[in-house]
Amino acid sequence: KSRSSGNTTLFQVIGWVIFGLLLGVATGAPKKSGVAIRNAGLGGALGGIVGGILFVLINGLLGGANPVLSLAIGMTILGASIGFLIAIVEGALSAVLKITSGVYDGREILLVHDAITIGRDEVRDEYIGGDSGIVTQHAEIQKGGGSHAIVPVNGAVTVNGEQIGGLCQLNNGDHIIMGKTNMIYNWRAAS
């Protein structure tokens, strides 16, 4: 009986891993980026492992006495684990521009596409309003060879105190200024 119970537990956890993976893929898909889908799927699968194991443990502890309470607590922990680990993995494996001033201070722009346009145009990839010094299509971040570069499109861009006139390769920790908005480029892992 214990071997059968062990197999059932293993299959339950595998089921939750698949559930987490699919939920992660669905979370990453709207970003239309293979990197975003991969990162969210990985986070979802890890969340499925952690949440699935906790779900099985809680069900074992409370299941016989109160199956409804066991199910409610287990599902809540499973969902929280999946959501939390999707966010953690996406952040850990993606390059970001972190805005450090202005209206959007603290916002992080995940760099998961091959090219991202930044400006005040609300239909473009990344909107940064509230700064009259940023124009509609201010700059573009381009991905290539495992790193990123920035190029001014219709606005002035300063990298590490120097105004750039063309394509500029970014390094981890570079300070970028567009208009009056300050940003830091962080490359956390290959993205």
Describe this structure in words.
With 191 residues, the chain is α+β, with helices and mostly antiparallel strands. 43% of the residues lie in helices and 25% in strands. The chain contains three helices and eleven strands, in the order H-H-H-E-E-E-E-E-E-E-E-E-E-E. The strands form two sheets. It has a six-stranded antiparallel beta sheet, covered by helices on one side. The chain has a five-stranded mixed beta sheet with strand order 4-3-5-6-9, with no helix packed on it. A hairpin with a 2-residue loop joins strand 5 and strand 6. Helix 1 packs antiparallel against helix 2. The chain is elongated and about 70 Å long.
Question: Helix and strand layout, with pairings?
Answer:
Elements: H1 2-28, H2 34-62, H3 67-93, E1 95-99, E2 108-111, E3 115-119, E4 126-127, E5 139-144, E6 147-152, E7 157-159, E8 162-164, E9 168-169, E10 175-178, E11 181-187
Parallel strand pairs: 3-4
Antiparallel strand pairs: 1-2, 1-11, 3-5, 5-6, 6-9, 7-8, 7-10, 10-11
